[in-house]
Amino acid sequence: MAGQPDSEVRLEDECASPQSCVLFFTIAPVLYIIAATIICLGNILTIVAVLKTPRLQTIQNMYVVSLATSDLLAGVYVFSLAFFHLESTHEVIGHNKVFCLTLYVTYVLSTSASNASIVFIAVDRYIYIAHPFTYTRLVTPFSTRCVIAGSWFFAAAVASCVIFFNRYDKVGECSFVHVLDSIYQLLSQTSVFFLTLVVVSVLYIRILVIALGQRRAIDGTGVQTYSDWRGTCRTVTTGMCSYFEDTL
Predict the structure, then answer these.
(1) Class of CATH domain 10-181
(2) CB 239 within 8 A of CB 202
(3) For residue range 32-57, what is the model confidence (pLDDT) as tens digits?
């Protein structure tokens, strides 16, 4: 019947067996709280360190603070999941439309802003390596603030779509897979993830090639030793590692 929740997505199915019930209502909340605490503390310390240390207040670290802020939101999202999985609050918030949509707006806002920050960090490093003389003219504190503000505006626009493109009234329960429209999930999550992966990979590979060429030119030998290759790769792959840590 129209308006009835889809039977296959009822959250009571999580307690189909005693083992799954213990996992859902006991183990999961503890794991979420531990993960959220680590995520929030780490990113709060990052933000505070940059704000309190003048030497760290560089243009590059403006992107780092933006990324840390988006990851802090991810920690808030994970912390909210703990309440969602607590037996005492599950029945209340699991069927609360405002909580459900707020939860997913926070998630999409966090992931979108995080992906945008990662891309702009890679773009900043590429311009710095490939066009060092143009870098100081193009990349200024004002232009960086504008880029960061634009990335968050974009992330907020994407996240706001959750309010308009959701199936909560039909599903009746807070289930990410079923509440959010499948096309929206594909465009806002899967496609953005792979697009970010491609862009970041191409930029850092290009940076690696340029860095190796510059080192050979400086050495004047045209021969790249193992130690030189390892040092250059370590510098370049730092950015790639940060991407996978924040998206996987």
Answers:
(1) mainly alpha
(2) no
(3) 889 999 999 999 999 999 999 999 89
